[in-house]
Amino acid sequence: MSRSDGSALHSVAMAEPTKHHGSCHCGKVQYDVEIALDAAVACNCSMCMRKGTLLAFVPEDRFELRSGEDALTHYRFHKHVIDHNFCSTCGVTSFARGLRPDGAKVVAINVRCLDGVDLGALTIKQYDGKSL
Ligand SMILES: [Zn+2]
Predict the structure, then answer these.
(1) How many angstroms separate the alpha carbon of residue 126 from the centre of ligand 1?
(2) Does 115 map to a domain?
(3) CA-CA to 129 of 20 to 30 Å: which in 16, 55, 57, 84?
(4) Total number of domains constituting the chain
(5) Which pLDDT score is estimated for 81?
(6) Measured in angstroms, how far is the CA atom of residue 105 from the centroid of ligand 1?
(7) What's the 91 CA to ligand 1 centre distance in angstroms?
(8) Burial annotation 53-83 (CB, 10 A radius, 16+ → b, else e)
(9) Is 132 within the bounds of a domain?
(10) Residue 22 has what pLDDT?
């Protein structure tokens, strides 16, 4: 998945970004993000397949974790480029931190965790993360 971040970021950067609030299920993890919500990536890597995440990517400076850093359990695999995490209380993955191929910090937002998201209005792009 790590090598896909650049193209995914490009594809969701078309519309104007607006502010959204995201959270885990129990509410310990809370964040604000500026994001253009017109598309999301469905990845078939071993992690995304199991979790069912729908991802959209933003530069780190458009993401602000309001609470819950100490509630996160971290998990890395494969090339260890992405800091996967989940809330240690409710188990929900609401975002992940990673690096783009050029080294820039990026945050992968699980758009399913944003308030008021209309999944039916999103263009879902299939990504072949399994082949990385
Ligand atoms: Zn939680």
Answers:
(1) 27
(2) yes
(3) 16
(4) 1
(5) 84
(6) 24
(7) 6
(8) bbbbbbeeebbebeebeebbeeeeeeeeebb
(9) no
(10) 98
